């Protein structure tokens, strides 16, 4: 399966600003579901608890419920405190936003080292596949699906910061797009939906096989390279 043309944005100097390419590393049996547009979305809790595998961030999901209080020492107020709660029961779909680096006059590449592959291929008993997706067209179809099903949601890149930002309940979806800087190498992109789920939710955006393709991953591979060659 070959996807259609993927737009690559460059600045005036020829440096790539945005590759508009997403990669979803998934178990082999789920790859065809993604190509058919069925997106299996786990709760943020699921990804948060993958901290032990190096994927999730145990600090994501901080939500301010509005209450404040006082920090006391010997009866004296020395600081104000906020009541923070963790909120992570809404469904999330995650992918890698693929950054391309110049390796030649007209050649670009993205290298995924074995360590990173292993973090996403955490089930050692399963075979995995990489699904490459044209992000621009994918986001358009996602937005149409959300309107069709009357679902509120947010999509975009994850921001990486060591500062914990306590969002209000009205901004709760934003907690799905914040992780610590130690995870910045993941270059993660997400969509989060505004309702709670106990386990998972399947969002059907319609067939995307024209804007995506799958690439098998050999479990013994030391690294995985995505290359772009521009023709004169």
Topology diagram in text:
Layout (H helix, E strand, L loop, with lengths): L8 E2 L5 E3 L2 E7 H8 L2 E6 H5 L13 E12 L2 E11 L4 E7 L3 E2 L4 E7 H7 L7 E7 H15 L3 E5 L1 E2 L17 E2 L8 E6 L6 E5 L7 E6 L5 E7 L3
Parallel strand pairs: 12-13
Antiparallel strand pairs: 1-2, 3-7, 3-10, 4-7, 4-15, 5-6, 7-14, 8-9, 9-17, 10-16, 11-14
Descriptive account of the structure:
- 15% of the residues lie in helices and 42% in strands.
- By secondary structure, it is of the alpha+beta class.
- The strands form five sheets. Strands 3, 4, 7, 10, 11, 14, 15 and 16 form an eight-stranded antiparallel beta sheet that branches. The protein has a three-stranded antiparallel beta sheet with strand order 8-9-17. Strands 1-2 form a two-stranded antiparallel ribbon.
> Which stretches of 5+ consecutive residues score pLDDT under 50?
52-57
Oligomer: single chain
Distance between the termini: 25 Å
What is the string of helix and strand elements? EEEHEHEEEEEHEHEEEEEEE
Q: Which strand-content bin applies to the residues? A: 35-45%
- Number-wise, the strands total 17
Average predicted confidence as pLDDT:
83
Structural class: alpha+beta
Principal-axes geometry comes out as globular
User: Count of helices?
Assistant: 4
List keywords for this structure.
3-stranded antiparallel beta sheet, alpha+beta, single chain, 232 residues, 8-stranded antiparallel beta sheet
């Amino acid at each position: 399966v070959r996807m259609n043309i993927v737009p690559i944005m460059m600045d005036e100097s020829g440096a790539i600003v945005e590759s508009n390419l997403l990669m979803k590393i998934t178990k082999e049996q789920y790859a065809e579901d993604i190509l058919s547009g069925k997106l299996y979305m786990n709760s943020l809790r699921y990804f948060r608890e993958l901290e032990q595998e190096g994927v999730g961030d145990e600090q994501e999901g901080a939500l301010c419920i509005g209450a404040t209080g006082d920090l006391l020492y010997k009866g004296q107020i020395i600081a104000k405190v906020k009541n923070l709660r963790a909120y992570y029961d809404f469904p999330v779909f995650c992918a890698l936003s693929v950054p391309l680096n110049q390796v030649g006059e007209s050649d670009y590449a993205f290298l995924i080292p074995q360590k990173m592959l292993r973090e996403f291929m955490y089930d050692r008993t399963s075979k995995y596949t990489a699904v490459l997706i044209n992000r621009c067209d994918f986001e358009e179809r996602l937005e149409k699906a959300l309107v069709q099903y009357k679902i509120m949601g947010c999509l975009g890149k994850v921001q990486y910061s060591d500062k914990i930002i306590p969002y209000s309940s009205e901004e709760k979806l934003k907690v799905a797009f914040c992780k610590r800087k130690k995870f910045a190498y993941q270059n993660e992109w997400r969509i989060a939906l505004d309702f709670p789920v106990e386990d998972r939710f399947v969002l059907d955006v319609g067939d995307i096989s024209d804007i995506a393709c799958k690439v098998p991953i050999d479990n013994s591979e030391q690294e995985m390279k995505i290359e772009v060659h521009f023709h004169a």
